[in-house]
Amino acid sequence: MRKSKILRETKETTVELEIDLDGSGLFKVDTPIGFLTHMVESFAKHGRFDLNLKAKGDIHVSYHHTVEDVGITLGMAVFEALGDKKGIQRYGYSIIPMDEALVLCSIDISGRPLFFYDDLGLRGKITDFDFELIWEFFKGFALESKSTLHIKVLSGRILHHIAEACFKAFALSLKQAVSLVGGEIPSTKGCL
Predict the structure, then answer these.
(1) Which of 6, 36, 78, 122 is 20 to 30 Å apart from 29, CA to CA?
(2) Residue 9 pairs with which residues in a beta bridge?
(3) Which residues are CB-neighbours of 121 under 8 A, at least 6 positions away?
(4) Quick check: 190 pLDDT over 90?
(5) CA proximity to 45, closest of 187, 175, 192, 149
(6) 35 phi and psi, to 5 degrees?
(7) pLDDT given for residue 78 in this prediction
(8) How far is it, in rounded angstroms, from Cα 137 to Cα 96?
(9) pLDDT tens digits along 42-74
């Protein structure tokens, strides 16, 4: 069973997250940030991950801590659920359109955390959500899952569409990377 449950508590946030990598896209997401909730629901649905998430944070200060800590906790949960990583595809990639937006995502569950992100320098708000917080979410995931993650915005004008394409591309890439295709660890080193 490739499942995990993580509780992460700091002075700034409390995040409870449960994931089943072999689910069907069932989700229950409760955060104090409407746009973050929408993006995480989209991730679960399109990646076909069963996901329960409850997050609280010091949003009176900023959304930053909560968004980052949800990404960190998701990374911790995926890392734990993968166990020894035997039989996984390891690599996943996708290019997703969302109306005028086009986003490329590629992931290597390598054991070597690295995050590369190019959003064309776009800045602004999606309702009250700062667009640059997307970087914080995915950086937290990449570091805690010990994965190499690349996300590149190829085109787009509407920040909501770009953000949603990022989360959908990430969902499809991760689903491909964690899919079971054999019985060995996919590395000439014998470990990931």
Answers:
(1) 122
(2) 14
(3) none
(4) no
(5) 175
(6) -70, -40
(7) 98
(8) 19
(9) 999 999 999 999 999 999 999 999 999 999 999
Q: Smallest Cα–Cα separation from 23: which of 77, 67, 72, 66?
A: 77
Grade residue 184 by pLDDT with cuts at 50, 70 and 90.
very high
Q: Which two tokens stand for residue 81?
A: 């659920």
User: pTM for the complete prediction?
Assistant: 0.97
Q: What is the 3-state secondary structure (H, E, C) of the chain?
A: CCEEEEEEECCCEEEEEEEECCCCCCEEEECCCHHHHHHHHHHHHHHCCEEEEEEEECCCCCCHHHHHHHHHHHHHHHHHHHCCCCCECCEEEEEEEECCEEEEEEEECCCCCEEEEECCCCCCEECCEECCHHHHHHHHHHHHHCCEEEEEEEECCCHHHHHHHHHHHHHHHHHHHHCECCCCCCCCCCCC
Q: How far is CA 65 from CA 15, 59, 128, 150, 173, in A?
A: 11, 8, 15, 22, 25
Model confidence at 1: pLDDT above 90? no
